[in-house]
Amino acid sequence: MFTVMVRKEKMHKKKFIIFSIIFISFLLDLITKNYAINNLIINHSVSINNYLNFTLAFNYGAAFSFLSDAGGWQRWFFIIFSLIVITIITFFIIFDKETEYIAFSFVLGGALGNLYDRLLLGYVIDFIEIHYNNFYWPIFNIADISISIGIILLLYSLLIKKNKTI
């Protein structure tokens, strides 16, 4: 009886963590993009400090503006691709008890944030620009940060598990 209660409590805690990460990632992305749309001018940089600008940009492609000039078909390609990735990650979170659910939750929250933009607008709103001297990293958003955190956590987990077996 006690074991069943502990198992249920762990399951509820896991579901709460998953939902919280996805919800907070998505909501923070939505709020910051709304701020960017209402307070920034397209392609006009607002310097925050020596390394950070806020620069509103509309990304019709994927990471690093991949396929951004493809003529429009890429919107549907990235929507379908996002839906497939979201479905696979959701499957892992629900059915794989050993999954890295925290990492996948970050990826899922970010993927949902960018998918929301693509469905609603046809492009992704980006506004965070990091630079050093004349080197500028491509402009990104909170959803991209969330996806990156998830991928970094997954890679870390893979490296740790790999090292344990050696």
Short description:
With 166 residues, the chain is α+β, with helices and mostly antiparallel strands.
Describe this structure in words.
With 166 residues, this protein is an alpha+beta fold. It has one domain (43-165). Helix content is 64%, strand content 13%. It is built from 4 helices and 4 strands, in the order αββααββα. The chain has helices spanning 2-39, 73-95, 101-121, 142-165, and strands at 45-47, 52-59, 124-132, 135-136. Strands 1-2-3-4 form a 4-stranded antiparallel β-sheet. Strand 3 and strand 4 (135-136) form a beta hairpin. The chain is globular and about 55 Å long.
Strands, count: 4
Termini Cα gap: 38 Å
The radius of gyration over CA amounts to 18 Å
Overall pLDDT metric: 86
Structural class: alpha+beta
Assembly of the depicted chains:
single chain
Q: What is the share of helical residues?
A: 55-70%
Helix/strand order: HEEHHEEH
Q: Count of helical segments?
A: 4
**Biggest sheet overview:** 4 strands, antiparallel
Low-confidence stretches: none
Shape: globular
Count of discrete structural domains = 1
Strand order of the largest sheet: 1-2-3-4
Q: Hey, roughly how much beta strand do the residues contain?
A: 5-15%
